Amino acid sequence: MNLTFVVLLFTSATMLASGTWRADQGDVRVKCPMTVGGSFDVKTQALSGSLTASASSSPAFDGSVTVDLRTLDTGIGLRNEHLRETYLEVDKGPGYDAATISKIELKGMDPAAPGGKGSFTGSLTLHGVTKTVVGAVDVQQASAGLRVTGSFPLRLSDYGIRPPRYLGIGVKDTVQVEVVFAVTHGDER
Predict the structure, then answer these.
(1) How many CB atoms lie within 10 A of CB 172?
(2) Measured between alpha carbons, how far is 99 from 93 in angstroms, rounded to an integer?
């Protein structure tokens, strides 16, 4: 549901080196706890974007990372339809079919040394609303670039998303977004 927020994590990897970094695919997972116990996951691999270290000496990045919300999969067809059409309203207009994170800043990481654990802040646009999100990030060297793992909590009500309910069973207001993806330097395609 709110996997775009995961996109935010990708940005943190970008800061670790100069130039432009690209993400073309990732594993985005939103853990949705249910009101009556249990939970289910919403997944997608439709993550893309590019980031460039800010021209200033701050730990911020220019650019954004986006998750295509039309590709979200809960594992059940009817639940997919309700999620996309009723709650996320992906066909409502611009800003509803994707989740985008921008203005990403890393904390607790050295921009000159790619790798390590820290935190991030970013501006997440979801369901036509932009809010600041904060989460944990882990950036590690990988064979073709960097591997980024991140997570953050997301309150559905902060983005004007109606509480998902069906036959008396619903999803709690706070879901957990988790993302794992590889980023490569823009020149390595």
Answers:
(1) 14
(2) 13
Q: Which amino acid is at 47?
A: L
C-alpha pair distances (Å), 94 with each of 34, 91, 122: 29, 8, 20
CA 11 to the chain's CA centroid: 10
Taking the C-alpha atoms of 56, 14, 128 and 174 in order, what is their torsion angle to the nearest 10 degrees? Answer: -120
Closest CA to 138 of 123, 111, 119, 124: 119
Tokens of 172: 């709690």
Helix, strand, coil percentages (3-state) for the chain, rounded to 5, are 15, 50, 30
> Of 4, 93, 16, which Cα lies nearest the Cα of 47?
4
Cβ pair 175, 32 in contact under 8 A? yes
8 Å CB contact between 21 and 145: yes
- Taking only the tens place, the pLDDT of each residue in 93-117 is 988 999 999 988 888 876 555 578 9
**CA–CA distance, 73 with 86 (Å, rounded to integer):** 15
Rounded CA-CA distance 135/112 in Å is 21
Contact 48, 24 (CB under 8 A): yes
pLDDT band at 2 (very low <50, low <70, confident <90, very high): very low
